[in-house]
């Protein structure tokens, strides 16, 4: 029986969260799992809009919204992949305490590589806040994405989820069949 879960890909901007989570989603879908990506770069502004004039409060509100949606989807047997910086450790700890099946993947990447990947010029546009990030205290995995390709990183995540019993090798199985 498939169970939902949440995998949070965290790390500074341009560390590979969107790319790796997209590849993981593709692999999981090919295995027959129901998957939903919550990428903070792609979510509708209605979910991540500036709810407060204070940057810190906005960051926490955005994470609270992501946690709520992820928790709800995972209840319905969906594997939820969050691709969001999640700048504050307390927010990722909140997710861990609220969601029974939760995995945190820290994508660690050098500043030099992140700057090379900065096609949206985030590091230029937000110099006062872009570097603020509380590294995870105890992530289930740390992947140096400046040393491994996105495909290698995604494969490592899939292998970890299988090794830990969160997922099993499947061939496009569905839980409901029509007679």
UniProtKB/TrEMBL annotation:
GO terms for molecular function: adenylylsulfate kinase activity; sulfate adenylyltransferase (ATP) activity. Residues 3-125 form the APS kinase domain. Its EC number is 2.7.1.25. Keywords: Kinase, Transferase. Pfam families: APS_kinase. InterPro entries: APS_kinase_dom (IPR059117), P-loop_NTPase (IPR027417), Sulf_AdTrans/APS_kinase (IPR050512). GO terms for biological process: sulfate assimilation via adenylyl sulfate reduction; sulfate assimilation, phosphoadenylyl sulfate reduction by phosphoadenylyl-sulfate reductase (thioredoxin). GO terms for cellular component: cytoplasm. Gene3D superfamilies: P-loop containing nucleotide triphosphate hydrolases. This is Adenylyl-sulfate kinase.
């Amino acid at each position: 029986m498939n169970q939902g879960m949440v995998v949070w890909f965290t790390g500074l901007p341009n560390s590979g969260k969107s790319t790796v989570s997209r590849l993981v989603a593709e692999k999981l879908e090919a295995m027959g799992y129901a998957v939903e990506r919550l990428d903070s770069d792609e979510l509708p502004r209605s979910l991540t809009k500036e709810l407060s004039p204070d940057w810190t409060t906005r960051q926490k509100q955005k994470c609270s919204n992501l946690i709520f949606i992820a928790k709800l989807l995972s209840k319905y047997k969906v594997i939820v992949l969050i691709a969001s910086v999640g700048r504050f450790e307390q927010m990722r700890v909140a997710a861990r305490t609220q969601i029974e099946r939760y995995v945190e993947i820290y994508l660690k990447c050098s500043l030099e590589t992140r700057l090379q990947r900065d096609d949206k010029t985030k590091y230029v546009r937000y110099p006062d806040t872009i570097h603020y990030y509380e590294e995870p205290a105890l992530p289930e995995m740390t992947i140096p994405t400046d040393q491994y390709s996105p495909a290698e990183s995604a494969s490592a995540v899939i292998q970890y989820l299988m090794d830990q019993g969160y997922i099993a090798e499947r061939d496009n199985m569905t839980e409901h069949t029509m007679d």
